[in-house]
Amino acid sequence: MPAETAGTRHDRPGVGMVTAVSSTEDIRVRAENALARCGVELAAVKGDALTARTPVTGHDLFGLRADTPAGIDRAVEAAHTAFLDWRTTPAPVRGALVKRLGELLTEHKEYVADLVTVEAGKIRSEALGEVQEMIDICDFAVGLSRQLYGRTMPSERPGHRLMETWHPLGVVGVISAFNFPVAVWAWNAAVALVCGDTVVWKPSELTPLTALACSALLDRAIAETGAPAHLNQVVLGGAEAGTQLVDSPLVPLVSATGSTRMGREVGPRVAARFGRTVLELGGNNAAVVAPSADLDLTVNAAVFAAAGTAGQRCTTLRRLIVHADVVDTVVERLAAAYRRLPVGDPFQESTLVGPLVNEAALARMRESLDRAVQEGGTVVVGGDRQLQDAAPDAAYVRPALVTMPAQSAVVREETFAPVLYVLTYRDLDEAIRLHNDVPQGLSSGIFTADQGEAERFLAADGADCGIVNVNIGTSGAEIGGAFGGEKETGGGRESGSDAWRAYMRRATNTVNYSGRVALAQGVDFSR
Ligand code: NAD
C-alpha cells in the first residue's frame, strides 16, 4: 500500500472500529468456492490427517489428507523423472509455461487472494498484493528464460575459447512459511521452472489450501502447454515432511523460508549431504529517523511497515531508532495513528489490521511486552486483545508501540507480532551501531533529507542488512531486486536480479581449436 493511502486512512478521525466478523460457515463456503474455481477437486484432497483452519474466526474449516513418507518419496521421484525431460526443453519454451501460469493467476487472482485471507488472515488489499507479486515474478521469469547468460572470458592460450554455461540443477525442495503462503512459492517456482528445474513444495501446515489452489493452476498450465507432468508437486504435512525433502539425495537445492530455528536445523542437514540451500529466515528490522526526516512520510511509512500484515512479515518494522530531537513528536504521532488503526475482519474493506495467525502468536506477543516492561520499557499503546465478543477464538490485537530506554535482550529478538520498539539516538554512528546490534540482518531503512546521512547508511560501514532503504519502510520489497538477508536471516537470495544463479549449476568450458596442446600457466610437458 502506498504511504499516502495509509496516511489518509490513519489521519481520518473517526474511522470506525470493525466489530463484526464473518461466520466460519461463510468462510468455509468462500474457501470451497475458491478452491473449486482454481480447479482443486475437493473430494480428492479432503481427509482427516490435517486441518484447514482460519485465523479470521480461529475455527477449523475442514479436514485434509496429508502425504505419507512413501507418498513424499513418490512425489520427489516423479519430480526427478520430470526433470530429466524438462532440463533439455529450451529455456524460452519453459518460459511459455510460466507465462501461462501468470495468465491463470491473473484470471484467478480474486480466488487465490480469498484463500490467502482465509488461511493467513491478510486484509484484502494485501492478499491481492501477494497474488500480484506472483504474477510479477512470472513476468520476470518469462523474460529471464531468454537471459540465462553465461560469460565468455579471454583465454590465455592461443586458439582457445573460455566460457561459462549454466545448466539446470534438479529438483528444488521449497519449504514455505505461513505468512507469505503463495508469493514465496512463486518466487522459487517461477524462476526454478525457467531454469529447467522441477519443484516439490512443502507449504506451511497452516496454509495448505493456498498451496493446493496454486498447484492446481500450475497443473492446468502444464497440461495446456504440453509440459511434462509432475513438474511441480505439493506435499502436505508438518515439519517432518520438510525434513524428508531436506534429507533427500534427489533434491540438490532446498529453499527454506521460515524461522531462524527452522533454518538452524535445515542448513546443517542439507550441508551434511553437500546439498545447497537458499535460507530465508527471521528478521528484526529497524529504521533510523533523522532530525531532518519528513515526519508525515515517516509516520505513514512506519505505521504500514510495523502494523501492516498484523506485524507478521519477515520484513516488518520492529525497531524505530529516532533522533532525540524528534523522538517525542514521532512517538506522539505514531501513538495517535495506532489508536485509530481499524483492527478486525480482514474481509472487510475498512480493516487495516487483521488477526494474528493463532493464539500462540498472541501469547508470544504478550510475553515480549511483559519482558519489555521488565527491561525498562513503556507500552505507549496497544497489546490489548480486540473483538473478544465477536470472535472469542481468534487472536485480534491492537498493534503495540513501546518506548525502550536502551538496547535490551527482548529488542534483539524477533517477535512475530505487531510490536514496535522505539529507541533514541544522538549521533548517526550510535544509530548505526544500535541498528546493527542484532543477530538478524534482513531489512532496514533511514528516513532523512540529508544525502550525506543516507549515503553513510548505504555504505560498507552502514546498515548490515540484505535490504537497505532510504525514505521507505522496511517492508514491501519489489520482485525486481534480489530478496534476502544476512546473519541469522540465512544469507539466501530469491526473486529478481541474478538470484536465478542459485537454481542452476555453472560449468566452465575451455575449447581448444588450435590443433596443438597448450597448457595453462606456461607448463611444458613435452619431451
Ligand atoms: P516456521 O519456521 O515455523 O515454519 C516454516 C516452514 O518450515 C513450515 O513449512 C514448517 O513446516 C517447516 N519446518 C519447520 N521446522 C522444520 C524442520 N526442522 N525441517 C524442515 N521443515 C521445517 O515459520 P512460520 O511460523 O511459518 O513463519 C514465520 C517465520 O518465517 C518468521 O521467523 C519470519 O521472519 C520468517 N519468514 C522469513 C522470510 C524471509 O524471506 N526471510 C519470509 C517469510 C517468513
From TrEMBL:
Gene3D superfamilies, sorted: Aldehyde Dehydrogenase, Chain A, domain 1, Aldehyde Dehydrogenase, Chain A, domain 2
Keyword NAD annotated: yes
Primary enzyme class: oxidoreductase
One annotated GO molecular function: aldehyde dehydrogenase (NAD+) activity
Signal peptide (from-to): none
Catalytic residues in the record: E280
Annotated Pfam families: Aldedh
Record keyword NAD present: yes
Record InterPro entries: Ald_DH/histidinol_DH, Ald_DH_C, Ald_DH_CS_GLU, Ald_DH_N, Aldehyde_DH_dom, ALDH7A1-like
Aldehyde dehydrogenase domain boundaries: 50-506
Keywords: NAD, Oxidoreductase
Listed EC numbers: 1.2.1.3
Quaternary structure and partners: Homotetramer.
Family: Belongs to the aldehyde dehydrogenase family.
Alphabetical list of PANTHER family matching this protein: ALPHA-AMINOADIPIC SEMIALDEHYDE DEHYDROGENASE
Protein name: aldehyde dehydrogenase (NAD(+))
Species, as recorded: Streptomyces fulvorobeus
